[in-house]
Design goal:
The protein has 16 helices and two strands. By secondary structure, it is mainly alpha-helical. The chain folds into five domains: 89 residues, no CATH class; 53 residues, no CATH class; 55 residues, no CATH class; 57 residues, no CATH class; 55 residues, no CATH class. It has a two-stranded parallel sheet with strand order 1-2. Strand 1, helix 2 and strand 2 form a beta-alpha-beta unit. The chain is elongated and about 110 Å long. Pfam families: HA (PF03457). Keywords: ATP-binding, Helicase, Hydrolase, Nucleotide-binding. This is Helicase.
Length: 352
Amino acid sequence: INMLIEGLHVEGVDAAMFLRRTESYVVALQQLGRCLKAGSDRHPVVLDFVNNLSGRSVYEAMSRELAYHPAIRAPKSFKGFMEFEVTGFLSDIRARVDDMLAELDAWPVMYERLIEYKEREERWPQAAEGKLGNWCNTQRIARKKGTLSEDYILQLDRIGFEWEVQDSRWMQYYEELKIFITQMQRYPKKGENNLSIWCNTQRQGRKKGVLSEERIALLDRIGFVWEQDLDAQWIKNWEQVVFFYHQKGYWPKSNDGKLGSWCSTQRKFRKQGGLASERIRMMDEAGFVWNTDDIWIENYEKLKLFYQEKHRWPTVRENKLGSWCFVQRRLFKNGKLLSWRKQMLESISFPL
């Protein structure tokens, strides 16, 4: 309080409450003047619970000023003063505030609550969400009937208010999608429910250029998958392959179950020119081995190094390299070992 008297101005204040008596109404006016700012687009609310500003003295002060300066007029938004009583020191203060706000113009109050809600929830309230949701619906109806003032329409447009009920339905699906992702840790599958149909509609809308930038931004914010479910499944498989590689130290082989088969399919698609360039780029950046011959050569070099260090060949149970040697011998016995591989193994005197 003393800082206000000494000249400190407080920015961004649109309401003030007097809870302690001051020596004079002049001091109270000084405090009030340094809280509230002229030219603000918000209507200030002043609650005087200790009668620092009696209606008579303030009115007289304003009258004297207007008499000295005839050109000065009271602001159009000035509503006048309201008399109220407080029983006891600050008793039932919350009830008193509610009573006074109820007597004020309700529209600005609800408008401010709407702004706070949007900033907090990052969406507009639904009709079924209580008083604020009903108020929003009332504004939409009033605008359609032509009974909503241009000033109110302009204020709502300024904050990007959604006028169409369809926008509210879109936000309802958007919130349902967020809940679904949180609970299921995935996106709805094709044909799974109405939410999956809605997701597909958003994808098609973006491709056709009819989905608004605001909605695209909202969906991007939650990591929405814009490609078809098939692409999402590819990403999921690729992530599992990368996880396998980091755990095992090698890329899944044909005998490593579904992941091995998936890798073989990607190699086949690439040879046939049927694998998208974006997918090839992703796999190249991770160091994926496209040619199975490269894997064989890699193991062959490891075998040479092992023999140089140990002066013996690895046993079957010793490590992965021992298992690889066992596979080469079995392929040779079955007549399935490629001739160039056989020659390379014989060149280092590997016992087949």
